[in-house]
Amino acid sequence: MATENTIALEQTALITNDATILGILAIMLGMVFYTANSHRNFWRRFYSVVPAVLVCYFLPSLLNTFNVIDPAQSDLYYVASRYLLPACLVLLTLSVDFKSIAKLGSKAVILFLTGTVGIVIGGPIALLAVSSVAPELIGVSGPEAVWRGMTTVAGSWIGGSANQAAMKEIYGAGDQIFSAMVTVDVIVGNLWMAVLLIMSAKAKQIDEKTGADTSAIDQLREKVEQFQEKHGRIANLNDIMMIAAIGLGVTGAAHLFADTITPYFVSHYPELGKYSLH
Question: Which residues touch 212 (CB under 8 Å, ≥6 apart)?
Answer without folding.
Answer: 206
